Structure formats: structure tokens, C-alpha cells
Automatic annotation (TrEMBL):
PANTHER family: ACETYLORNITHINE AMINOTRANSFERASE, MITOCHONDRIAL (PTHR11986:SF79), AMINOTRANSFERASE CLASS III (PTHR11986). The gene is argD. Gene3D superfamilies: Aspartate Aminotransferase, domain 1, Type I PLP-dependent aspartate aminotransferase-like (Major domain). Keywords: Amino-acid biosynthesis, Aminotransferase, Arginine biosynthesis, Cytoplasm, Pyridoxal phosphate, Transferase. HAMAP family: ArgD_aminotrans_3. The keyword Plastid does not apply. The lineage of its organism: Bacteria, Pseudomonadati, Planctomycetota, Planctomycetia, Pirellulales. GO terms for biological process: L-arginine biosynthetic process. This is Acetylornithine aminotransferase.
Length: 405
């Protein structure tokens, strides 16, 4: 496409003006269909999407096996409540258990809900006088009141107070600060093993292990929010399994999942050990749509696709290919500060406003994201081809090299 200002159907724009609450900043582009890492708008323009589905579409748009599984399921049974069994929910739970630490699953529909379940579980599993949860500055855990309170970023709290009681915040990477916050009322620690929205921040070596030790010494539940980093995004099934984040990996007591869990279909989950699981006892928590047949079918198909196509290994290859193109910018340009990547979580920190990069890339047919004002974030699909990596980098590198400062 040519470098023009975006436009979209005026009728659709009018519908939004009239009837949709404007709580999102939206680009004036109306997306209509997608295939792999390519997406088309209502004016027929094609884009290469290096941020498909805000990290939900780890297999790209409309992965065939997920599409087929959903189509088959939707004709058989759309929804049944959790007062009955479905074979698929059980099989899905087992598949997740086998790929993580062998525990049990609770299913919900989103990342915030998975974290709400984690907050309840942490409180339920520890003695009644323990209720405090330590979270980390720059973290992101979702928008419900519990999850947003866990999110230690003041900009998300403005005007919402009073927030939920019982959260204390530590600087990401600071074990001494965590030790100081622990008291007789502390019940758990909730952390993103790699901060996503906070700017693709990878913890210093030994940090996650240190948290494991603090949790063990003080009887705390250690929960990892892997809503963005989990389900294969980093090239391991779960970020905690990365040797680079701890000596051979650090095993948490709880992980929360959503985003790419179901290949783009809405779904969330909490996984915990068999020992802790009974604390979420009957009557204490529930989700009407949680673990529904469509999400389960999509979740199973997502795992099968990743394994059949050997995509975990592919994630690392794609990551290396991006690094080969982006690292030279750090070395060459004074306003490009740092490249941070773990598999297909890629952040390029600038010292200048990144929204202009997003805008210019979009005008040239490339979709990316900027978080925290200055961090260019890519959450590309595992199915991205080598040619697509080069195509995307050609545009991105050119835009960054030619920024008007
Ligand atoms: C996106 C995200 C959430 C919130 O997920 P929703 O599905 O939007 O509720 C929570 N934690 C992390 C790490 C996320 O990236």
C-alpha cells in the first residue's frame, strides 16, 4: 500500500461514534479478514501483522486446525455449564498439566479473570490472617479491580480508588525490597516472569529463583502471570521453563494463562499444583463460560498445531532472525537504546516517542505496537516465514533509521 493516511468505512466509524463507548484509542482502520500474518482492512489494503491479536494470535490469524476444531465443535455443542462434564475440558486440562508442572487447571475466559482466580487462591490457600500479595512495579495483570490493583502502575489506578486492600509493590528485580515487604500477613507473590506491557522486561539473573526461595522460606504462594509470556510465546511452553530465567528454570506454584491459550479464541486458565488445587474448593469460585466446549476445542487444537509443526523451536529461529536485523540499530543509532527479546516477545527501546514509528509502519502496511511510550513491541506469530521477517524488518528498520527527531 502507499503512504497515505488511513481511512475506513464512514458508516462503521459513525456506528462507533454513536454506540460504542470510546474507552479505547483506535486507529482509523477497520480490519476484515486475516490469514497467517497477513490481515486485510475494509478498503482492501493488506498489512503484515507483527502484533497479531495483541499477542493472542500466536499461530497467526485463522490457523486452519483451530478454525476446523471450532467449526466442528460449534455444530455439536456451543455451551454447557460446569455442572456437567465435557470430555474436551478434561483432555485440555491434562494436556496443559503434562506440559507444565503436572498440576490441575481452572478455566475462565480472560487474563484478568485468571489473575482474579489466582488472588482468591493465594488467600484461600494460606491462613486467614495472611492476605497480602506482593506484585511488581511496571507489571500488568488486567483491568478488573483486583487485577488492576495488582498492576503496580499509577496510570491504571487514576480515579478508581479506593482500590482493593492488601497489595504491596516492589521494584522488578529487587529481591531485598521483596524481603522487606514480607510480613506475617503476606500470603503470596504475583509476578510476570517477563513483563510484557511494561516493556518486554526480562528479570535479572537469579531473581525468579530468589523469589522462589523467599516464598519457600515464608510459606508464600508463588504465582506467575504468564498471560502474555506463556503457551509457547517464548519458545518454551511456559516462560518459567526457560533456563535463561533461572538455573534450569524456576517452578512456580500457580501460573495464569490467556491471550494465546486458544489460538485467538477467548479463553483463560489457572494452573496450580495438585497440593494447592483443593483450596479452590466447591462454591468458592466459578465462571459460567470457563472451559466451554469451543474454548476447549480451540485450546487443544492450538497445542496440537504447535507440536505437529514443531513451532516452539521455530519461535527461537524467528527471534534470532529479528535480532540479526534489529540489534545493529542499537549499535548504530543514538536514539535506539536496547533490544530485549525472549523468543517471540521482542522489545526495542527507543529514547524517543515510539508512536510515530507505529503510525509510519502502519502507513506502509506493517502492524506493530508501542508500549510505555518508547518501547517498540513485536509479538509475532510462530508461523511467520523467513521472508515475512525480512519484509517486516525492511519497513521497521527503514522507518526507525529515518525518524525525524
Ligand atoms: C493482557 C494481559 C492480562 C490481561 O488479560 P485480559 O485477557 O485482557 O484480561 C493480564 N496479564 C498479562 C501479563 C497480560 O499481558
Amino acid at each position: 500500500m502507499t503512504a497515505t493516511t488511513q481511512s475506513m468505512s464512514e458508516q462503521t466509524a459513525a456506528l462507533f461514534d454513536e454506540a460504542v463507548i470510546p474507552n479505547y484509542g483506535r486507529y482509523p482502520v477497520c480490519l476484515e479478514r486475516g490469514e497467517g500474518s497477513r490481515v486485510w482492512d475494509d478498503q482492501g489494503r493488506a498489512y503484515l501483522d507483527l502484533f497479531p491479536g495483541w499477542g493472542c494470535n500466536l499461530l497467526g490469524h485463522c490457523p486452519p486446525k483451530v478454525v476446523k476444531a471450532v467449526q466442528d465443535q460449534v455444530a455439536k455443542l456451543i455451551h454447557v455449564p460446569n455442572t456437567w462434564y465435557t470430555e474436551a475440558q478434561g483432555r485440555w486440562a491434562k494436556m496443559l498439566s503434562e506440559r507444565s508442572f503436572g498440576g490441575k487447571a481452572f478455566f475462565c475466559n480472560s487474563g484478568a479473570e485468571a489473575n482474579e482466580a489466582a488472588i482468591k487462591l493465594i488467600r484461600l490457600h494460606t491462613p486467614a490472617e495472611r492476605y497480602k500479595i506482593i506484585t511488581f512495579q511496571g507489571g500488568f495483570h488486567g483491568r478488573t479491580i483486583g487485577a488492576v490493583t495488582a498492576t503496580a502502575q499509577p496510570k491504571y489506578h487514576e480515579g478508581l480508588g479506593p482500590l482493593m486492600a492488601g497489595f504491596t509493590y516492589a521494584p522488578f528485580g529487587d529481591l531485598d525490597a521483596v524481603r522487606e515487604l514480607v510480613d506475617d500477613e503476606t500470603a503470596g507473590i504475583l509476578i510476570e516472569p517477563i513483563q510484557g506491557e511494561g516493556g518486554v522486561r526480562i528479570p535479572p539473573e537469579g531473581f525468579l529463583q530468589g523469589l522462589r526461595e523467599i516464598a519457600d522460606e515464608n510459606g508464600l504462594v508463588l504465582a506467575f502471570d504468564e498471560v502474555q509470556a506463556g503457551c509457547g510465546r517464548t519458545g518454551e511452553w511456559f516462560a518459567y521453563q526457560h533456563a535463561s530465567l533461572g538455573d534450569g528454570g524456576v517452578t512456580p506454584d500457580v501460573i495464569t494463562l490467556a491471550k494465546s491459550l486458544c489460538g485467538g479464541v477467548a479463553g483463560g486458565a489457572l494452573l496450580t499444583t495438585a497440593e494447592i488445587a483443593p483450596s479452590l474448593r466447591p462454591g468458592m469460585h466459578a465462571s459460567t463460560f470457563g472451559g466451554n466446549p469451543i474454548a476447549a476445542a480451540a485450546g487443544i487444537a492450538t497445542i496440537e498445531t504447535i507440536e505437529e509443526e514443531n513451532l516452539l523451536g521455530r519461535a527461537s529461529q524467528i527471534s534470532d532472525a529479528f535480532a540479526a536485523r534489529l540489534q545493529p540499530l542499537v549499535d548504530k543509532l543514538p536514539y535506539v537504546e536496547e533490544l530485549r527479546a525472549c523468543g517471540l516477545m521482542i522489545g526495542l527501546e527507543l529514547s524517543v516517542d515510539g508512536s510515530q514509528v507505529v503510525q509510519q509502519c502502519m502507513e506502509r502496511g506493517l502492524l506493530i505496537n508501542c508500549t510505555q511510550g518508547t518501547v517498540i513491541r513485536l509479538l509475532p506469530a510462530m508461523t511467520l516465514t523467513d521472508a515475512e521477517v525480512q519484509e517486516g524488518c525492511d519497513i521497521l528498520v527503514n522507518v526507525i533509521e529515518n525518524l525525524e527527531l
